[in-house]
Amino acid sequence: MSAPRRTGAGLFAQDRATTPLGTWLKIASGEPVEIMAYAGFDFVVIDLEHAPLDLQTAYRLINSAAALGTVPLVRVPDTTASTIQKILDAGAMGILVPHVDTVEEAAAVGRACRFPPHGVRGAGSTSRAGAWGLRPGADYLATGNDDVLCIPQLESVEAIKAAPRILALDSVDAVFVGAADLSMSMGSTPASPEVLELIASAREAAHTAGKLCGLAFGDAPERAARAVLDGCDFVLLSNDTSMLAETARGLVTAFREAEGRP
Length: 262
What we know:
The protein is α/β, with parallel strands linked by helices. The protein is built from 11 helices and 8 strands. It is globular.
């Protein structure tokens, strides 16, 4: 049975019955992306910022996710147009861009995601994104402009203050609030009242602009569900390395306790 075809824009469709749920991929292997797809995650974010993944590995993971009906997004390591173009040519259905602090930075990222006249992305229709040249040119260009998600990460007080102007950009589809980096920049914690207030401000700015705001919650699905009730629009839970590490530690601990040793 073939997997359903999904797109970046479809991930955030208004008629979705459930909240889009994703996880991070950090392991340079094909098995984790398959496991996450079979487990039921709606999307994965291939992490080129905090993991030792190269472009070729990302290329393979993008293909595996898409083939299994899971939307492949990529967190890019920088904001250069050349990096973004290669990731989109590889078939990614959207990008998360870390540390976007100003509307000017967000606008530059948005232009890198879109073809002219909306942006500066170069045409590469013989890539995977263009089905190796087999997709009609007009369809390739329309898909590149309409179905690719551009999601700046807001990770500083400056970024939160700029959120209304960032979200007013046509090229920005949603924002992701990096609560960990935001709180570190404030000398605080993700659960502190002042950080929660800033997160709520970003969420309100997104909704005012008719767009979405997402958060990550580690291994805390209950907190993620409460955040959705408060208006969070998409969430990420844990990542492949942490899932493996926590399960491994739990098994060892349970065995030692059952064995009667410390």
